[in-house]
């Protein structure tokens, strides 16, 4: 089924210079399930620059039961990474936001008006549970908008409990939520069903942004070695519009 999506010429490697900015990755060492050392961060960012990225907004997890990250912790780690990539002679620009798991802690932050680390344009990257749907997803996303943020839902193709009624994605977009698909979802990395849902979302023009969601160097190696994917090359992702937005 997926053959028509891929150019089989082996000499063509994926190039993401037309995407320009990656808005979902885990490149700050030791604070979540992403990289463990600053050397690993430098190696991954080197590969991302080779792929064509000029800008990165890395997004550590904030999941209060697992990763109690704060803006202070994230900014400290970001500065360490910035110094290391500068010493390595890399030219890619790196900033940090966060990937917020919608849980009780997130709702407390939202209701109390505490600081969020955001993507350009006050975009708030959020994720849902993988196994059990939230009872109030729409209400929470509406609350984010009411607080003056633009919600961006990370990897919607991976929330399999929505598969029985995929029109829920249309409702979320109509409500004002932007959706971000993972590159590796289009390669079959997470499984065929997730690839099919990613294609469905793209076919229905529901995706705004493309992200690597890179946690380890193997993720980038898979992207780097992959053949050109027609969705990646031709879909009008809006990433590059974020580069000059504060």
Task: Outline the fold blueprint.
Elements: E1 21-22, H1 38-51, E2 55-58, E3 61-62, H2 71-87, E4 93-96, E5 99-101, H3 104-112, E6 123-127, H4 137-146, E7 150-154, H5 167-175, E8 178-182, H6 192-203, E9 209-211, H7 217-225, H8 230-234
Parallel strand pairs: 1-2, 2-4, 3-5, 5-6, 6-7, 7-8, 8-9
| Low-pLDDT runs | 1-11
Shape: globular
| Order of helical and strand elements | EHEEHEEHEHEHEHEHH
End-to-end Cα distance? 41 Å
What is the CATH first-level class name?
Alpha Beta
Structure description:
By secondary structure, the protein is of the alpha/beta class. The chain has a single domain (14-238), classed as TIM Barrel, CATH 3.20.20.140. It has helices at 38-51, 71-87, 104-112, 137-146, 167-175, 192-203, 217-225, 230-234; strands at residues 21-22, 55-58, 61-62, 93-96, 99-101, 123-127, 150-154, 178-182, 209-211. A 6-stranded parallel β-sheet has the order 3-5-6-7-8-9. It has a 3-stranded parallel β-sheet with strand order 1-2-4. Helix 3 links the parallel strand 5 and strand 6. Helix 1 runs parallel beside helix 7 (217-225). GO terms for molecular function: manganese ion binding; protein tyrosine phosphatase activity. Keywords: Hydrolase. It holds the Pfam family CpsB_CapC. This is protein-tyrosine-phosphatase.
